């Protein structure tokens, strides 16, 4: 009986989260689609392209709004999948390898990028109870494990059928 109650509560929680997500999606889809797509072909495949993209969204408000709209439509079953899919929709894992959370003399800091701030704002819009700490942790882990994902993909490509 207790297990059935728990599974029912979990189902209600999941459905509530999906409903909130759908409401947010509907709100974002009411805006008129811009006539011209200002965003480059995504995901970006080089760090140089991404750094230029960051510079462009810093200078171009219309481009930034298009990016916000794109990120808002990414979806995902929970906040972690939304964040990971958002990052992957903009940069490849190969680009993420050349980025760190805090930054180094040789690698830029992800937390200083417009992309990070846009993802964080989208998380708060979709779930007002989301904390910066959790959002930061998910972003950090995604960036940190990019090299592992690339290595895994490469090892699968090498294996014969």
TrEMBL record:
Domain of life: Eukaryota
Pfam family, any one: DUF4806
Residues annotated as domain DUF4806: 42-114
PANTHER family from the UniProt entry: SI:CH211-262H13.3-RELATED, SI:CH211-262H13.3-RELATED-RELATED
The name this protein goes by in its record: Uncharacterized protein LOC101898075
Organism, as annotated: Musca domestica (House fly)
Gene: 101898075
């Amino acid at each position: 009986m207790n297990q059935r109650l728990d599974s029912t509560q979990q189902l209600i929680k999941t459905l509530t989260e999906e409903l909130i997500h759908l409401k947010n999606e509907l709100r974002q889809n009411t805006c008129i689609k811009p006539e011209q797509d200002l965003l480059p072909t995504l995901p970006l495949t080089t760090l140089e392209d991404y750094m230029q993209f960051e510079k462009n969204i810093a200078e171009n408000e219309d481009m930034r709004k298009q990016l916000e709209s794109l990120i808002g439509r990414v979806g995902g079953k929970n906040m972690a999948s939304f964040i990971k899919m958002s990052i992957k929709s903009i940069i490849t894992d190969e680009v993420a390898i050349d980025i760190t959370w805090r930054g180094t003399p040789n690698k830029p800091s992800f937390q200083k990028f417009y992309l990070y701030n846009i993802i964080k704002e989208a998380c708060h819009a979709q779930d007002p109870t989301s904390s910066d700490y959790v959002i930061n942790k998910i972003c950090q882990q995604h960036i940190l494990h990019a090299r592992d994902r690339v290595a895994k993909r490469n090892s699968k490509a090498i294996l014969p059928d």
